[in-house]
UniProtKB/TrEMBL annotation, chains A, B:
Name of the protein: Formate--tetrahydrofolate ligase
EC number(s) on file: 6.3.4.3
Record Gene3D superfamilies: Domain 2, N(10)-formyltetrahydrofolate synthetase, Formyltetrahydrofolate synthetase, domain 3, P-loop containing nucleotide triphosphate hydrolases
Key words, A-Z: ATP-binding, Ligase, Nucleotide-binding, One-carbon metabolism
Length: 553, 553
């Protein structure tokens, strides 16, 4: 059997200008990055009517993921086999997982976006531009303090952190500015992974370059000695930061193995950030395609909730259908089966674990979303298990369709594609937000925790309690919420599988993200800088004299 | 008068494919990065005879620089006005100075390389790839220690530092791995600016991707508890690191305002690194042009010395002529005139300061290099001063030609160009290395200090003394030397102007760069991470809705 990278390297790609031409993208708005990648200049000139929006999400995943990207790609390819003019809008991979454990984010098997090596490594440089912008701001803040501190920034209250697009636990807690008076002001500092940076969120939510600059200006970087918030505008550097992002804001166009156009742009994680690709890319896909297929990170409790409550108001368009990816093996895990037993047939565990899928279905229906379940097939799955899972979904009034897109590409997702088309035609989505922004801050957090996660209550640690009060005084309590939480459970405890009840969500800290326009709420022990595993994927990577990569997956 | 960026934005660029075609670069080796930038796949297929190599260097500069890049660009444009088929090979700018004080590195006035905004910001992502590779190695080292430390790496003896392509003094001295047992191993750490990273040196000296990988494998990252060196090969990650650099190693092609082809690739600083653009870019320029114009950073004591002693053996070709850039104002500064008086006519100061230029001329002649002095004109310079400077050079047997390339582009450097052509035709360069690698380490350092800098002697601080002994035992004493030193003086004290004598060079520390293949010798108080000035250039930068930059220079 061929590996992902072998399949990718044997693929016949079309020149990206051809893909763009097929979409009707004007030649002069295309900036090539090699033969198979391009950036598209933002423009409002394309057709004004928007296509149908298909949001792909999933149950709470196993550590390897449940193949949401693979299904998204297969679904788009399947739609195009049915001549439905589908366009993908996906996230850019982070080098953290690529070098670490999880691997890339370009799909798998016969459902991949290409060139997979480039997309998984530096791509068109967007994430590097974000890292640089993030750290340029840090350097400018610390330089301001060092050079006289006209704004009176309290070094102990700088909340803007440096970032790197790597898994590097060593940088979680640091002290910087050591040495002597000439080497900066000593203070505690931590590095986040770039996908958690507010710059990433801002890039993904901005409608254009001027909106981006306006959002950058609003970012709160810390507080003065008098506890007044200090913004990027106070530092007068929003112009420089926007300049550093002038190309990164343009969506990237690539293609699938079956030459379906794919906009891959922006990549916040869904556990520690808002988990959706950029508004600009999704909007471009909606303008150019009759169907736009997009995904939101991790389970529907994280990515889809944030898509619906945070991205939709910025996008100005709600999904027409939600495709919920589930796997037999993950549901068996949710049913209590040990991870090394997942290849064994176990209908009891599957039925028990179905509770997780059922909860996510209900949650999406609660937003007024029609739902189709996509069962992502694995080799070890049994027909008996597929049959049981489809029957369980049927009882909930939801169609579950098998996808073998990993093995068969678009052909393996044709049934899923036609089901999705039918559901969109037959069931009208009736999008309703989960909460109103004007609700008290505490109530908004509780609403998400209780409605989406199934929590009994929310407990606020001391620091968070003080922040509830402070943020209300600052008028920040009118913002929506972006919860940082483990992706493995509906709760904030990775070990609580299935559909846990009777747990309280513990809020540790709240972080103002005024540029993004939401508050990040840290729960449980979620980390904003991952670590590498004992044997990182990097140890198996290589490149030959001709520049061909190996060891990427 | 138009600013640099205004001139750049009014320029009419040719599509970069046209520039490539003119050079005879095969179409299928060109990877476009937008319309006006391209990477060229490395290949040995071009004409085997090499063009003439022109090395542009300078006297010790003022903080604003003496216009070495501007003269290089003007000279190449001037050569092409004379139909001499000249190609440029220059360095990539670092964002540190761009956001800080010195500005970009794309020339100035009517002698610029374009698109200046892109080249000065992220360009084709090479430096970001180097930063990422550097820091991925750091994360892999610390993860190895954290996950059981099979190699027995002593955390207190990790010499590999993290890096960022920014001026950020706050990161010079840090402590990382704080928190608790799960957050890594606490140790001291410092960040260098990326242009000082050994990865940058390796990329610039490697002949191809496999040589790059072999060099990466040799990098020493620290020592075990038994004081044995630990290499990248021991960590088994040279494949992953080379993979991260697979595109960065390809030279970038752009053009000047007059559509002269320019390879801009690699950008180590000359004060803290080896200061030359990449071997691959210079070789490509030599293969494609009848004349290749390249520059080496800062004064001839730094960049040119390193070009001649470190780059030439890797390039396999020595310069045919050295162009020494001097300015009236900098020589007056070397003659003792205060920086705010440099616009005033002062023949006495000029004559006194000429000692600096004279020393650099002698140094280059000592390498067997014919020398042409290029006087880079400034508006405040007087005819009397030009005349004196030319007369002083004539007495040394060297022609000094005025260049108004900044004001007039290639036309302003035509006389310089024809002089350079004549000197190459008439005087045969007879390249001789300054020292043999097999000399004792101490003697090699003394040779550079005494011959090039004019030092009386070299004093080694305690740490350096121990390293002289240790490195000899390790067999590292056979390597050539890369001295890190202030660029403002021939000595290691920025305040000693002119041609100081009777000073001792103080060696603080020696750093093994086994991948680059040299030892970096830190002298005086030179910093490997610069800081931002009181009012960073970033405060004046902006971008408009159409993506047009302002405030770059």
């Amino acid at each position: 059997m061929s590996s992902d990278i072998e399949i990718a390297q044997q693929a016949k790609l079309a020149p990206i200008e051809q893909i763009a031409e097929k979409l009707g993208i004007p030649q002069d708005t295309i900036e090539l990055y090699g033969k198979y990648k391009a950036k598209i200049a933002l423009s409002e000139n394309e057709k004004s009517s928007l296509g149908k929006l298909i949001l792909v999400t999933s149950i709470n995943p196993t550590p390897a993921g449940e193949g949401k990207t693979t299904v998204s790609i297969g679904l788009a390819d399947g739609l195009n086999q049915l001549h439905k003019n589908a366009v993908l809008a996906l996230r850019e991979p982070s080098l953290g997982p690529v070098m670490g454990l999880k691997g890339g984010a370009t799909g798998g098997g016969h459902s991949q976006v290409l060139p997979m090596e480039d997309i998984n490594l530096h791509f068109t440089g967007d994430i590097h531009a974000i890292t640089t912008t993030n750290n340029a701001l840090s350097a400018l803040i610390d330089n301001h303090i060092h050079q006289g501190n006209e704004l009176g920034i309290d070094p102990q209250q700088v909340i803007w952190k440096r970032s790197l697009d790597l898994n590097d636990r060593e940088l979680r807690h640091t002290v910087v500015g050591l040495g002597n008076k000439a080497q900066g002001v000593p203070r505690e500092e931590g590095f986040d992974i770039t996908v958690a940076s507010e710059i990433m969120a801002v890039l993904c939510l901005a409608s254009d370059l001027m909106d981006l600059k306006a959002r950058l200006a609003k970012i709160v970087i810390g507080y003065t000695y008098q506890n007044e918030p200090v913004t990027v505008r106070d530092l007068q550097v929003e112009g420089a930061l926007a300049l550093l992002l002038k190309d990164a804001i343009k969506p990237n166009l690539v293609q699938t193995l079956e030459q379906t156009p794919a906009f891959i742009h922006g990549g916040p994680f869904a556990n520690i950030a808002h988990g959706c690709n950029s508004v600009t890319a999704t909007k471009t896909a909606l303008r150019l395609g009759d169907y736009a297929v997009t995904e939101a990170g991790f389970g529907a409790d994280l990515g889809a909730e944030k898509f619906l409550d945070l991205k939709v108001p910025n996008l100005g368009k709600a999904p027409d259908v939600v495709v919920m990816v589930a796997t037999v093996r993950a549901l068996k895990m949710h049913g209590g089966l040990a991870i090394d037993q997942l290849a064994n047939e176990n209908l009891a565990a599957l039925e028990k674990g179905f509770a997780n899928l059922k909860k996510h279905i209900k949650n999406m229906q609660n937003y007024g979303m029609p739902v189709v379940v996509a069962i992502n097939e694995f080799a070890a799955d049994r027909e008996s298990e597929f049959a049981l899972l489809q029957e369980l979904c049927r009882k909930e009034g939801v169609t579950a369709v098998r996808s073998s897109a990993w093995e068969n590409g678009g052909v393996g997702a044709q049934e899923l594609a036609s089901t999705v088309v039918d559901v969109i035609a037959e069931k009208k989505a009736d999008y309703q937000r989960l909460y109103l922004n004007r609700l008290p801050l505490e109530d908004k957090i509780k609403k998400i925790a209780q409605t989406i996660y199934g929590a009994r209550d929310v407990s606020f640690e001391k620091k968070a309690k003080k922040q509830l009060k402070d943020f209300k005084e600052l008028g920040w309590d009118q913002l929506p919420i972006c919860i940082a939480k483990t992706q493995y459970s509906l709760s904030d405890d990775a070990n609580l599988l299935g559909a846990p009840r009777d747990f309280d969500l513990t809020v540790r800290e709240i972080m103002p993200k005024m540029g993004a326009g939401f508050l990040v709420v840290l729960t449980g022990n979620v980390l904003t800088m991952p670590g590498l595993p004992k044997r990182p994927a990097a140890l198996d990577m290589d490149v030959d004299a001709a520049g061909n990569a190996s060891g990427l997956f």
